[in-house]
Specification:
Order of helices and strands: HEEEEEEEEE
Largest sheet: 4 strands, mixed
Strand content: 5-15%
Helix content: under 10%
Structural class: mainly beta
Radius of gyration: 25 Å
Shape: extended
Number of strands: 9
Strand order of the largest sheet: 6-7-8-9
Distance between the termini: 75 Å
């Protein structure tokens, strides 16, 4: 028997299922009554198709927080448990494609929240975006960590822009290729990790490990 289903048939099946069945791992009340122990676990959805779109959903709601899809991993402590895991075996195109029409927001919004209620540095080794360039069986890779391009004529806006909570631009890569650095009143402290490139009172220079500032011009 072929494990295939048309999109209309699949959507009809999904719309007719109970909410508990659509949420894997969520306990549902037993059918014998409201006082029965909530010990029954729902069954996850598995869909396999040979062609066409496996899952499709469309919403016209404008009510706040009415997302087309919402995934919540409520468990904590899983070493590699993700709320969403996207895998593609197609080397000819991207694993995920996102298109937006925003005027004042990012097409993709990522918010990192410090999980500690008391330690402001508990997430010092975390990142809002993490890129891992893996060699695979080839033993090496030449992939780029971050690639920016405009296929329709370029942009007049900042390519990269970091703004502090007060709205002040700290660092920006401008569309002409120049760098914008916030002017500092005094040189920042040095670090053994390496040199710091900074703008001190309108002068571009380097700060060495000992905190000494050397103007470049």
């Amino acid at each position: 028997m072929r494990n295939l289903m048309s999109r209309r048939g699949l959507l009809g099946l999904v719309s007719g299922l109970s909410f508990g069945w659509l949420t894997p791992g969520v306990r549902t009340a037993a059918a014998s009554g409201a006082d029965a122990p909530a010990s029954t676990f729902s069954t996850p959805i598995a869909v396999s198709v040979a062609a066409g779109v496996a899952l499709s959903a469309r919403s016209t709601s404008t009510t706040p927080d009415d997302h087309v899809a919402a995934l919540h991993l409520a468990g904590t402590g899983g070493a590699n448990n993700a709320a969403l895991n996207v895998v593609s075996d197609n080397p000819a195109f991207s694993a995920a494609e996102i298109t937006g029409h925003e005027t004042g927001h990012g097409t993709l919004k990522i918010s990192h929240l410090n999980p500690s209620p008391t330690d402001a540095n508990a997430d010092a080794n975390a990142a809002a975006i993490s890129v891992d360039l893996q060699a695979g069986s080839a033993g090496g890779t030449a992939a780029q960590g971050l690639f920016l391009k405009s296929t329709t004529g370029g942009t007049s806006g900042k390519i990269i822009n970091y703004v502090d909570p007060t709205g002040l631009t700290i660092f920006a890569l401008l569309p002409d290729g120049s760098l914008l650095l916030r002017p500092l009143a005094t040189p920042p402290p040095g670090t053994s990790v390496g040199l710091k490139l900074c703008n001190v009172a309108g002068r571009l220079g380097l700060v060495d490990a000992g905190g000494g500032f050397t103007p470049l011009a």
